[in-house]
Design brief:
Blueprint (H helix, E strand, L loop, with lengths): L12 E3 L4 E5 L2 E6 L3 E6 L2 E7 L8 E10 L2 E10 L2 E10 L10 E4 L6 E4 L2 E3 L10 E5 L4 E5 L2 E6 L3 E5 L5 E4 L10 E3 L4 E2 L3 E2 L2 E5 L2 E6 L14 E3 L5 E4 L2 E3 L9
Antiparallel strand pairs: 1-4, 2-3, 2-10, 4-5, 5-9, 6-7, 7-8, 8-9, 10-11, 12-15, 13-14, 13-23, 15-16, 16-22, 17-20, 18-19, 20-21, 21-22, 23-24
Length: 249
């Protein structure tokens, strides 16, 4: 089964009903409750910040207006103490796409941290049309690869994320770590946080864990999940079809 990422129409603009802050060098560069969601591509939006809510002491005008897809934008760099991020901000002028004029678009990686309300967010803004639920279960979940059982449990936490296959999070006591090799891989997710551990089999990463997941999925803390795409999972004795997703090529 194919699992395409949840998509919206490109250039869609909506109000973002959350307090959004961006930090650089320990300083708050912007703090707003009037941000806009702008879908620059179909799978998730970017935050556009009202220019009036940006602390201009941190902006360096590079005097470089340019006509872009969504209108004319003036380019700025960022400077906070000894930290500089040249060419990292675009401020859109009056001819821009409706809802975008007068807003600043920050390169995500140019800031040290982004916050929605008082919770740090990672990678990119969360798609408001994606839902993530972590539910405790008593279903029998068995994970194997090439006939070798990697994990088996009757107390999983099932994580349901819009547009993705169900992930089965398993208590570490029910995982056969003797068949897994620790991996240096680390990934980040806007909905779950930053992984703390990865494990591989024959050089391929197959499992991961979050020691400190986001509050919304706190139930998966320190549990282990496997890529359905790479292992054989059976739930209550019924094999789960290996899905095709953008995570595994």
């Amino acid at each position: 089964m194919d699992y395409p990422r949840m998509a919206a129409e490109t250039d869609r603009v909506e109000p973002a009903p959350r307090r959004i802050r961006g930090l650089l060098g320990g300083a708050v560069v912007f703090d707003t409750t009037s941000a806009r969601y702008v879908w620059e591509w179909p799978n998730y939006p970017q935050y556009y910040i009202p220019f009036g809510d940006v602390d201009r002491r941190f902006l360096v005008d590079e005097e470089h207006p340019r006509r872009l897809r969504r209108g004319t934008a003036r380019r700025y760099g960022l400077r906070a103490g000894d930290t500089e991020r040249p060419g990292s901000v675009r401020v859109f002028e009056a001819d821009a796409l409706a809802g975008v004029a007068g807003h600043a678009r920050f390169d995500w990686a140019a800031l040290d941290a982004w916050f929605e309300e008082d919770e740090r967010i990672f990678v990119h803004p969360r798609n408001p049309y994606v839902r993530v639920d972590a539910l405790r279960s008593t279903r029998h979940v068995r994970v194997a690869l090439d006939g070798v059982v990697l994990a088996e449990t009757r107390t999983p936490v099932l994580l349901f994320e819009t547009g993705l296959p169900t992930r089965y999070y398993i208590d570490r006591r029910d995982v056969s770590f003797s068949h897994l090799t620790p991996s240096p891989t680390q990934t980040a997710c806007p909905y779950k946080g930053i992984t703390s551990d990865y494990w591989s089999v024959d050089g391929a990463d197959v499992a991961w864990s979050y020691t400190y997941p986001t509050a919304a999925v706190a139930a998966v803390a320190d549990l282990v999940a496997f890529y359905n795409e790479l292992v054989d999972i059976a739930v209550d004795g019924t094999p789960v079809e290996r899905p095709r997703t953008h995570f595994v090529r």
